[in-house]
Queue: 4 jobs
Job 1
Amino acid sequence: MQVLKTVNDPEIGASIVNLGMVRAVEVRGNTVGIQIALTAPNCPARTTIRDDVMKAVSKIEGVAGVDVQLSSMTDQERGKLPQAMANRPPVERTNSQQPSNSKFMGIDKLPKRKFGQIIAVTSGKGGVGKSLVTGLLAVELRRHGFSVGILDADLTGASIAKIFGVKDRPIWTSATPAPPTSGTGIKLASMGFLMERDDTALIWRGPLINSAIRQFYSDFEWGNVDFLLVDLPPGTSDAPLSVFQSLPLDAALIISSPQELAVMIVGKAINLAKTMQIPILGLVENMSFATCPDCGKRIDLFGRSKAKKLPKPPA
Ligand SMILES: [Zn+2]
């Protein structure tokens, strides 16, 4: 129990022991069986909680195996949650105007807050310049006088901080910190700010990404933002999927490049947006061609465009 006290419910930010989530601990020889009652049946943090419990208990000397069983609290148990915590629901519910895809995989959609338009920038795979396009789009919107924010959800690269030349790691002391801003006032939330070294490639698990994104989205004092651009992790794995599910996105922009030979891969990203019922603004084929500075000839650096072979989003 002492060790379990160090494990927090990431959604509530309190120890699972204090929350009364530990139903039973059973020691059989060198194996420990633990029953955890989640505060909600589809708690988005369920995998994180299970993994954290496994990790914490495995560290105890002499423990060879850990078996974690998850269930959910009864209404009565939920009623016993300390009052202060019960007042803060684990997941903010969507308002009724938002189209809800939340039944899918049990991830709840966050509320819209003060964002005008929330646009996801996505790609079928990495290396197509998605973050750069996100940055350029933000700069252009800013030039038109809009208030712009970028939520860097691509934790594998986390290059947004670098693109905008924001080098200092911000010191966050408030519970609702303001996001750092670029030279022209673009508000930036990037995992890159939290990383020790910018050459460290992070492989984050889906649930952890989802938790980090939720915190950036919910806990930051964004103020008024006309356009929030979300730089999604590449691909169609559970990482981008969880962002699609948890943020109230208004539209998606798909980035590709001619050398991304497998049209199928981009098609998958398009289909993901379609499945999540998010309107697709368009497809940007990055690095499509270069114009020769001497004679003005167009050079297709990576071969002819393949954009027209892609499935078209519904009109
Ligand atoms: Zn030339």
Note: Confidence is low (pLDDT under 50) at residues 86-106.
Job 2
Amino acid sequence: MVDVADELLANNRLYADPLAHQHVDLRPTRALAIVTCMDSRLNVFAALGLEEGDAHVLRNAGGVITDDMIRSLAISQRLLGTREVMLIHHTDCGMQRLTDDGFRAELQADTGEAPAFAIESFSDLDAAVRQSILRVRRSVFLPHRDRVRGFVYDVDTHRLREVS
Ligand SMILES: [Zn+2]
């Protein structure tokens, strides 16, 4: 079987060749960090009208604020000048289709080892967004916690809804 990566490598040559050499500054021009899910249907840059160099986009399963997301946000804010955080969960998320206990048991049954990490599944989207907002607001490692807003992206209508 051929790796998808080989096809993407060819795609990259087609993408890069017509572009002029340009250097964009390392610091995001919009001083924004976005935390969202790894879901393949959410094209963050297109959906939000962002360009290369505009914002940091941090992704994991569920768009959950974990210690590693705090690590990235701390670097984003302290070293690279971002001041605003957008949290984006989405409808029909894979994390709504499992439970912490169930997935943990499955991993343990298959491997004989219990994972050290938390699974962080959720059923209520808005509650999950609010919890992520709280985790950012409570992190002492982040100097900028006043502009943190949470949203749900609808994968069918492509619209964002703010969670208050
Ligand atoms: Zn998801």
Note: The beta strands are 32-37, 55-60, 84-90, 148-153, 160-163.
Job 3
Amino acid sequence: MSSQTFPVVWTERHRLHDPGGEVWVGVPIPGTEVIARGDLIRAALAKAGFPIVDPAAHDPSHLHRVHDPAMVDYLRTAYNNWVAAGYPEDPGQDRVVPYVFPLPQAVVDRPFRLPAAPSARAGVYTTDTTTLIGPGTYAAALSAADCALTAAEMALRGAGAVYAACRPPGHHAGRAFFGGSCYLNNAALAAQALRDGGMDRVALVDLDAHHGNGTQDIFYDRADVLYSSVHVDPGAGWFPHFVGFADEAGRGPGEGANLNCPVAPGCGDGPWLEAVATLGAAVAAHRPEALVVSLGVDGAAGDPESPLGISPDGFRRAAETLAGLYLPTIFVQEGGYDLDRLGGLVVGTLSAFASAGGHR
Ligand SMILES: [Zn+2]
């Protein structure tokens, strides 16, 4: 392993998850969270000399540290129940996709009942119609969680930096909901594993173009794990739309341990890097023993899923800022959908972190 690299945890089991497209505004579209993403990232990292290791398998009970066991059980069983109900034949939908949602204001003051129909159950835990479940979705999501948990274990054993090449991504998955192409929250699982491994304080920095509403949800009431994020302003019309605003600062004991830095569509490197510096200062003030970075590169110029227009050099400079914190660091892959640039963006960011000495 050269001094300019660090270990990558990756598994081919990500290929088990083929979302088969999305349903957006009622229309089936091809979607951008595709199998090729996981393979392109691996190929670029291998070519750049990063050593690639397999994840260890973990008991699903690890998932219950950050997720409602009932949601995990739903994810495990949803596809088989969907097929058993005959939806692939009639009406002809071979992926689990909801059509009704139990909005809080519509079911208030009533004991929650899991609906009998699998078509209705599909709306209980997901926020949207763009996060479909296929035959291998749960297995792939478990393997992505394994990558993040393995990276955390390597950090607990003394690794200075590890990259978990997670697919499907995770930061839109909360304690009892999933959505935005995410099923299990890989970054939150890594952060919790660091806590459970004996680290008293942990910080998360989320560089994905979109707010990590799932990660924020999981840690919103806690002072031990700082969640901080730079993302396109949901108030300007961007996913996840309902949360991710600057006035969301945490609750109860978690007050002050949640930092959202929304930036304007089209902002480019300048304002984005200023926000990254603000996140870095907040991390330093939190005095964590380790850092988990939700590394989405969908903020890059040309990405089909965001309007931020960040340059490859912007990502390198963000990595240098994080390297300057001199913390054991786990990078967890989130978004990034420009297949021509995805591999280069990830390699460029991780290499800049290593070159700046962040992994030692
Ligand atoms: Zn994103």
Note: The chain has a mean pLDDT of 96.
Job 4
Amino acid sequence: MRVLAPNPGPFTLQGTNTWIVGARPSLVIDPGPDDPEHIREVHRESEPVGAILLTHHHPDHAPGAALLADRSGAPVLAYRPMANERKLAGGAIVPGGDAILRAVHTPGHTRDHLVFFERESGALFTGDAVLGQGTSMIDPPEGDMAAYMRSLSIMLSLAPRVIFPGHGSAVWSAVEKLREYVDHRKDRERQVLAGLEDGPRTAEELVPGIYSEYPLELYPAAARSVLAHLLKLAREGRVTRIGRPVDERFALASGASCERCGRPVMPGSRLCDRCGVAALQEAPPATGRTREAGGGAHIRPSSETTDGRDST
Ligand SMILES: [Zn+2]
Ligand SMILES: [Zn+2]
């Protein structure tokens, strides 16, 4: 059963779906925002509650959990528990009165994202990983496109019959929807790579070419999504990051690798950014050859720390 929270908006569609699964006791997924009227209604429909499950901790899904826990006495379970919540690991089984949910860790939208699968009925409760309409927001650094695409494959492997999303209507062609999501991201990735063929670009510079049919007010959100693709491609060595973090651009990787460490390098360079800096420091000053050895303008000493943060 669905109870719709009164928080409609551009990212929440009609509002957040609070799902009540089974009965005596029921399992409640995503109580939604901290709205007493909504929580009262959820409690009325779900009593007695066996457990409150969170797909993730965004403000449109989780804050109501504490209110519902107070009213029902049920524990709140989450992948990364906050105060007064309990840990729910990927693969964990949560039994209700007449339904059993399995938690599946599906990072991508957030790192702590879970979906819940009811094997008997084939129902998959997807939170913000799959929506009833449109696509899921992948916003770095908490959003991770590579992890998200792996999570889509994991959800496909469950062969669900129906998707009950965090926003929007139920999707009865569940596998088709997941395939559509995978194809959509692959198409976007191809468009991002094609957009770099004319030279280095920022995420913002790539947006008009890729989203030409979308209204301008969507461009900032689209740029976050393009950035998520670029960071994934950079980690795979298919694009290279150039410049300081404030004016960073992305370029197609040359296919060549650094002579010292084997990381991808910019076209025409023998060394990657990091080894280029090391070479500069080792070289005797004022020989006039150090810039060439280091790959010239592509030196960006901070690249390591930035990469490290994105991949944790
Ligand atoms: Zn979210
Ligand atoms: Zn949401």
Note: The chain has a mean pLDDT of 90.
